[in-house]
Amino acid sequence: MAYQTIETLVGNTPLVRLQRIAGNSSNTMLVKLEGNNPGGSVKDRAALNMIRQAEARGSIKPGDSLIEATSGNTGIALAMVAAIRGYKMKLIMSESMSEERRASMKAYGAEIISVSASEGIEGARDLALTMQSNGEGLVLNQFANQDNPDAHYHSTGPEIWRDTNGEVTHFVSAMGTTGTIMGTSRYLKEQNPDVQIVGVQPAGDKDSIPGIRRWNKDYLPEIFDSTRVDQLLDVTQEEAEIMMRRLAVEEGIFCGVSSGGAAAAALKLSQQVENATIISIVCDRGDRYISTGVFPS
After folding, report:
1. What whole-number distance in Å separates Cα of residue 277 and Cα of residue 23?
2. How, if at all, do strands 170-174 and 15-17 pair?
3. Cβ atoms within 10 Å, residue 230
4. Known active-site residue 258
5. pLDDT digits (tens, 9 = 90+) for 232-286
6. Which CATH class is domain 43-139?
7. Which of the chain's ends, N or C, has fewer CB atoms near its CB within 10 Å?
8. What pTM did the predictor assign?
9. Is residue 236 a known part of a binding site?
10. Domain-by-domain residue ranges, the chain?
11. Annotated binding residue 180
């Protein structure tokens, strides 16, 4: 009898309909529950593909050290895949990231290196490259690694197309590394060029939404191609947090802040269109954010 391994459980996440938040509308609002991945987020897909493809190219072998700058979910996913496939994992992140995320990475055996909150993800990226130059390991570089969006081209996009029977009209995704939206857009547009791809970003510099960025042009991910996004929608931190809490109490979907941002944007979009099938990504689970105070105590 052939048994599954943890990595075979990455992907094929549920696509479920919002029952109350959607309101009285001609549209169908669906969310893809990426928190159902074994590592708890959409980043499991990219992490697994980046390591698999690096192995296939002969760039790494079990026992090697890997380095990555992360805001949280990618780090957890990479720590999990490194544990499965036998690598040492060094993760660099802002000291402002939640304790649940740090604890999860350490549980998988990863080494955590902190940068200040003011340095943020940009400082973490710079340090990762410096460490690589010093021979301390290989940087997978989710921001410039085509294996990141390719993971979604080969899995997330096909799953959405399959599970909607090709009826998807709009795909809404928060933009962090932009891997999810880039790969999914490429696949869906190949099936139907009329599918609208909507990117979600923070409304302003003061809005701090974990997992969503409005990038400084000097740090814009190299994998990002603006021609693959039809529309950008802004959400405030308050809007993202309110929707995150609504998803829990009105739909029974316990998720993180970026998922709330994507769903808030999807609801704004739903108020502008008719007879549409709108999919947004619920990219992780809410238990990673409890210590931050975004949920009622």
Report:
1. 14
2. unpaired
3. 15
4. yes
5. 999 999 999 999 999 999 999 999 999 999 999 999 999 999 999 999 999 999 9
6. alpha beta
7. N
8. 0.93
9. no
10. 6-38+146-282, 43-139
11. yes
